[in-house]
Design a protein that fits this description.
six-stranded mixed β-sheet, alpha+beta, single chain, rod-shaped
């Protein structure tokens, strides 16, 4: 051995042509590396440089070992593997007996393994609160049936109540202030006289009442005379509501006008419609006004009428 061939790291003599130091394992002839300061040490106690060249150093050491050393190392590795296998088998057997999870059980499987089944109380279903009771809508009572008047006959000149009612309706536009509310038509025996009675529900005052009476008489005269040949006279009555001095109320005739066919032949209905309403009273064959109404009509509003009755 040449004494000049020594390890530059540990100073041990090297064999002729040796690539590795048999004592420290460093590469023969490589410069010694000064140890790094504490700040350069890794968390495992090795310097970053030593950690980076670890695989190369192991590989170089393995090539530097003798054949006998390699065989011994391989045998030691095999024995270590067998020992670990035996120890692992024992641990598995004892772990299975004690009920602890086997080392080979994956952690994820252990973490997600469901606990032993136990009866679980079913989750309570929220009770449905009954809504407010729907009350049936009140039964709609049918309105009383309105009995229609008989239809006019095929011959409009037949003296019947329906025909007269229709005639009054057809001529109502002659006097807009006429009112045939609560109409009652009576045909006297012999078909020579017709009574027409009405009870208006809207009367403003006594003057208005007289105007309604005169308007109804003029419309009835035009509607009946000449259209129904047998009729020789008509009486038009308008009822009024009265209250006596005892406070009792009653519905009684307030005024009436009688006109004959002979008198009606003198009427120009279009012209008379433009005259004062009291003119019809004065031209009629006869009339009557209740004293309760007459006394409340001023003299200026009586027109041509000089008294409460005529004829």
């Amino acid at each position: 051995m040449d004494g000049s061939q020594v390890c530059t790291h540990c100073g041990a003599p090297l064999a002729q042509g040796a690539a590795w130091c048999g004592k420290c394992g460093q590469v023969a002839g490589s410069p010694a590396v000064a140890p790094l300061g504490p700040s350069a040490q890794s968390q495992w106690g090795q310097s970053p440089l030593a950690s980076a060249s670890m695989g190369q150093r192991v590989s170089d050491r393995w090539r530097g070992l003798s054949r006998r050393a390699k065989v011994g190392t391989a045998v030691a590795v095999v024995i270590a593997i067998l020992v670990l296998a035996v120890i692992g088998g024992s641990s598995s057997t004892s772990g299975g007996a004690s009920g602890s999870p086997s080392p080979s059980t994956p952690l994820a499987a252990m973490a997600t393994a469901s606990p032993s089944a136990s009866p679980t109380a079913p989750s309570a279903t929220p009770s449905i609160t009954a809504g407010p009771t729907v009350t049936a809508a009140p039964t709609v009572t049918a309105a009383p049936t309105v009995s229609l008047l008989p239809s006019p006959t095929a011959n409009p000149h037949d003296l019947t109540v329906p025909n007269i009612t229709q005639s009054l309706s057809d001529n109502g536009n002659l006097m807009p202030l006429s009112s045939f509310q609560n109409l009652k038509v009576t045909i006297e025996p012999g078909d020579k006289s017709v009574d027409i009675e009405a009870h208006p529900t809207v009367v403003l005052d006594e003057n208005h009442f007289l105007t309604i009476t005169a308007s109804n008489a003029l419309v009835a005269s035009k509607a009946i005379f000449g259209w129904y040949p047998t009729v020789l006279g008509i009486r038009v009555t308008v009822d009024a509501d009265f209250i006596d001095h005892y406070g009792k109320s009653s519905t009684e005739p307030g005024a009436w006008i009688s006109i004959t066919n002979a008198t009606a032949q003198k009427f120009d209905y279009a012209g008379m419609a433009n005259l004062d309403s009291t003119t019809v009273f004065c031209d009629a064959d006869s009339y009557w006004v209740s004293p309760s109404i007459w006394n409340r009509v001023s003299t200026s509003d009586r027109g041509c009428m000089t008294r409460a009755s005529k004829g």
